[in-house]
Amino acid sequence: MRNIIAKFRLSSHNLEIEEGRYIKPHKIPVNERFCQLCNYGLIEDEIHFVLVCESYNDIRELFFSKISSLINNFYNLENGAKIKALLASKNHTILVWFAKFLKCCFQRRAFLMVEIERVKLFKELPFHFN
Ligand SMILES: [Zn+2]
After folding, report:
1. 49 CB burial (10 A radius; 0-12, 13-18, 19+)
2. Separation of 73 CA from ligand 1 center, angstroms?
3. Domain range for residue 31?
4. What's the domain count of the chain?
5. Would residue 84 count as lying in a domain?
6. Structural domain includes residue 108
7. N or C: which end of the chain has fewer CB within 10 A?
8. Residues 11-51: pLDDT tens digits?
9. Ion ligand 1 — residues with CB under 5 Å?
10. Residue 130 lies in a domain
11. What is the whole-number distance in angstroms between the Cα of residue 111 and the centre of ligand 1?
């Protein structure tokens, strides 16, 4: 369960901010590693994934309502402080909930990305049927 948080801390995940490094033949510049799910031209980094992307709003709402009972003033913290409070927490309950939240969001992301890749593939077809 904590493994997922440890990996997330070490940037060992498949968000665009990391994936962009490994695209061949040319890696994507850091400022162009956009989130493909919300399409607002926002960089998909850890803060975007955990705190901003609307693709996970419902999961996040539930998670925040739980977390705010354990972290003082959680809703009013700046994004940087919020992510730090989660990643650096030593509270077992917070870590368990955070791990569940990450797992849930990554599952949804994987599901949505399959659909996005399918649409892309279709657009890249060398001909159209009309
Ligand atoms: Zn997004």
Report:
1. buried
2. 25
3. 2-124
4. 1
5. yes
6. yes
7. C
8. 888 898 888 777 777 788 888 899 999 978 999 999 999 99
9. 35, 37-38, 53
10. no
11. 14
